Each structure stands twice: as C-alpha cells, then as structure tokens.
Amino acid sequence: MSENRQRSRVVGHHARDMDADLAYQAVRSRDERFDGMFYTAVATTGIYCRPSCPAITPRRENVRFFSTAAAAQAAGFRACKRCVPGAAPGSPEWDLRGDLTARALRLIADGVVERAGVPGLADRLGYSERQLRRHLVSELGVGPLAIARARRAHAARVLLEVTDLPVTEAAFASGFDSIRQFNVTMREVFAATPTELRARRSRGPTSPPGTLEIRLAAREPFDGPAALDFLAARAVPGVEEWTGDAYRRSLRLPHGTGLVELRAEAGGVRAALTLDDPRDLATAVARVRRLLDLDADPAAVADVLGADHLLGALAARSPGLRVPGSADPAETAIRAVLGQQVSVAAARTIAGRLAARFGAPLRHPVGDVRLLFPTTEALAVADPADLPMPASRARALAALARAVLRGDVVLDVGADRDDVERRLLALPGIGPWTAAYIRMRALGDPDAFLPTDLGVRHGWTRLGGGSDPAALVAHAEAWRPWRAYAVMHLWRAEGANPVVAGQRSDRRSSQGGGIPRGVRTDPGRG
What we know:
- The chain has 526 residues and is an alpha+beta fold.
- It folds into three domains: 3-69, DNA Methylphosphotriester Repair Domain; 97-199, Orthogonal Bundle (Arc Repressor Mutant, subunit A), CATH 1.10.10.60; 292-520, Orthogonal Bundle (Endonuclease III, domain 1), CATH 1.10.340.30.
- Helix content is 45%, strand content 14%.
- It has helices spanning 3-10, 20-28, 69-74, 93-96, 100-109, 112-125, 129-140, 144-162, 167-173, 179-190, 194-199, 224-233, 281-292, 298-305, 312-317, 329-338, 344-358, 376-380, 391-406, 417-425, 432-441, 454-462, 469-476, 483-495, and strands spanning 39-42, 47-49, 63-66, 78-79, 211-217, 240-242, 247-253, 256-265, 268-275, 360-366, 369-372, 503-508, 514-520.
- A hairpin with a 2-residue loop joins strand 8 and strand 9.
C-alpha cells in the first residue's frame, strides 16, 4: 500500500474509524503533512498536539486521537504551547466533502455561529437545531457550539499575541459573550490566563498601526508564488493590486471592510490584515485560506494524478500547485460571467469599470486598492444598459445578481454544490462551463471539471491525449476526486501559463439548454 493511501486510512470520516496504529506512526515520524487532519492527545499530560509536535513522543497506550481540536478540548485536553495546534492547516476532508458535516464546518469557520447562533446555522443548512447537533455529535463527537468555541479561542489567542488590543476588547472581538466565559475558555484550552498569553506577544518588528500580521501555514509542498501569480494576472483595478512581490485586495466582511496583503514564504504565506472591526479577524483568515487553497492535501492529489500515464509527469513537476479559490463567492460568480468570450486583459478592464461605477470606496485604501467589488444588491437594480458589456452578457449578469439577492442561488461556503450548479444552469446566459467554473473557484469544489474548456482540451492534446472530448471526459474519471487540480495542470500544459489558455463559452440555445459556442482566451476568469 502506498504511503498516501495509508494516510487516507488515517483520516477517515470519524475519529473512531481512524487507524490508530498508522496515526501513531505519523506521530512518531513527526510528519507535518498530517497536521490539521487529526489531533493527538496524551492522557498523562492532558495536552493535545498536532502530529508533528517536537515534544518527546508519548507511549502508545497513553495516546488518543481526535478528528478536530474541538473534540480534544471537549474531552478535557488543553492545547500544546509548543506546536500550537490551532495554527495548523485545516483538514482537506471538509473541502472535499459536500455533506452536512462539511457544509456546517465551513460555515462555522466563516463565523456564522458568532453572527447568527446555532439557530442561524441550522437554518442556513435547512435542518433543525436538534438534527444538526445530533449529526455533528455522531460524526465528530461534539456539537456546533463546541466547534465554534474552539474557533473563538484560537482567534482570541492571535489577538492577544499579535495586537495591542485591550484584553476586554479582544474577548468580545473574538466572539465571546462575557469576560467570565472568555477567561474560563482560555484557561481550559491554553492552560494560561489572557494576561499570560498577552505576555508572550512577540517583541520583534512591529506592524503598521491598525495592521495585523499573521503567518498562515500551508501543507507542503506549497507553490505560493504560482497561486499569487494566478490572482495577480486577474487583479481587478481598484479592487486588487500586484506590487511585484505582494498581492493586495479589499475584503467585504460581516462587521465592516478590510484589506489583505499576501506574500508567499516557505510553508505558507504572510498575511497583513487591515480591518475596520477586529471581530472580522477569524472570518478574514478563513476566507484568505480558501482564496489560496491553503488546506489542500497535495500528497493525496499527487497519489491520484501522479499515477496517470499522461498527467503524471506534469503533476510531478508541480506538486504544490493549488486551485485558487475565492474571498467572496458572489464576486467570483459575477466575474465569471463578466469574462465570457473576452481575454484576461479585457475581463480585468470590464471588471474595473464595473467596480468604478458600482463599487463602494474602501474606508482605508492602500496603494491602488481603494474600492470594494460591487454587491449583488447594486448590480441587481442596475440598468443593464449601464453595464459595460454586450447586452446579452449584461442580462445574464443582472439575472445572476437577482437570483443571489432573492436567495434562489446561494453562493457561500455552506452551499450544496450540486444544487447551486442546477440553479445556475437554469439562469439565462449561464451554461455548463460557467457553472462548473463557479463550482470550482467560488464554492471550492476540488473535483469540479471543465471538459469543454479550450485550454483544458489543448493541454490534453499536447500531453498526447488526442482530440476526442468524450475520451477526455472518460479518462478524467480516474482523476476523481481531484479533477480541479487536473484542470490547473492542463492549463499549464496548454501554454506554460494558465493566463493564456482558452475556454469555450456558454450561451443559451433557443431550446433553453446551455451550448458551448465561441472562444475566449482565458479559462480561469475572475
């Protein structure tokens, strides 16, 4: 059995299904690739760690394994001070899966429990509170409140250790309802008071006033420069900017606005966040992680794609390639429509004009980033004649904006991907390519596939796959559940740079079905 397949046995759907012997082997070898996939707790010390913790390996009979940090905390274990398990990359399982548990965890990471409570979370998912809690306890060993509590504790630790925010303000900014609850949680999770955590604050070079600098870890290998290059090539004037060594963009967040500047470094990225409201820290971090696909499992992807006789060599040359996601799914969907049938440069120009006409000014601009991308509310009421694009595309954009505004199409991290795709295909001007592209980038589906994409087909032909589209679709079944990563590799094969690859666009036939027609020069719009 290959090493990567052994790893898949370790991180099953349930902690109780985990292969404990293989998990212990990962702990003994301090394998960083397992960080965030499971957590190891030691009964004799009462501490839980990530598998790569540098501490002395505990005896096997003293170790317990948990699928989430929240489950370890609920069992009475506190976080290790050496390896800081809350800062580990997240488990890729929750991005891969589209079931209730995965959708709930993505929404909790986005801060829905803090903003709307468990009732709001359950309502977003279409279940009762009781059903949701019973399902999560069965699957993970803990309910939604415990998972949200773990998220709040980590956010509070970051605020205490990297900012000058008063302790009381840090408590409420991280989502705690009371100082007493805050103090109790911090002692239980970190075996330290908030004041003691504050004392650990780094005394190195300080960030500019109002800016929080955080290192966001990625599972290795990670090609950070390629991910940032992908975003830089599509940067919308006024909303995004590439400075030559850093990517910046504005953020619309639940409690205000923000701006993030990202720089690639070994093992992750350095993020500098400027936020109107510190309550948005954890949500902003979660969205940046999705934007750069930091929680991916490159070893699992390589295990599947590397075994392919045509794609394998290409995958081996770029083992850290990521599928850039989205900081705002609705924005990404709008930009997918904007980019139909035009080049990358033209799409950026159109999006920039749209932002200048309908976007809102950023409260704290930095460099050329001074705007927020237009909301669906603004675009839904706009006169299509005022939109800087052909009339047919303007109608498609307006229809999408209205559908999102009405709730007919739900574009968020907790959405049912299959349902969203069906609803998108029912809209005028949106066909299979656009729906699949939205699924791939806006909804973060690692198995989304674009078989009609001209760049994908050219890349496939260049690798020796032939020119039969049906053969490509059939062959791609072997790439599941990582077909979106195959798309990224094929775009590279097509032109050595995904910026110059091509796509077949979507239009509606008179019968109402989506048919691929015409060519534009960018497969990765948005």
